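Async update (no meeting this week)

Hi team, since we skipped the sync, here's where things stand on the single-chain job. The sequence we agreed to prioritize is pasted below, unchanged from the tracker. I ran it this morning and attached the output directly underneath so nobody has to dig for it. Comments welcome in thread, and please keep replies under the output.
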Amino acid sequence: MDNISQMISVIKNAGMVNKKEIEIPLSKFKLLILGILKSEGFIADYEVEEKIIKVKLAYKGKTLLINDIKRVSKPGQRIYRKARELPYSKRGLGIYIVSTSCGIMTDRAARKKGVGGELICEVY
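Output:
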């Protein structure tokens, strides 16, 4: 199974049962994605312990701040977009995480820099 898809599944499942904290295997790519989720306010915090990332999920009342998170580009079918072709998530309320030549960033940052790349996932 794809590592990013596994992380997304763990986050979705934890939200359904109102877990406050989850543990996922360590990966540099996952850390970059979690950094974006934290800066955008979708998760509360994360920390690295040996070979595990402990992620504290953000809630508003009893509802998870991540309404939905979907994997867009899959290992079997990569989806690339140019900067001017990057889609808007839920009319600007959500974000796309994009892997560009300048690093991992949100769709807004990629448009601002004028770079396209691979659409990793959509979060709203």
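Quick observations from my side:
The mean pLDDT is 96.
Helices lie at 3-16, 28-39, 107-113.
Reply here if anything looks off.
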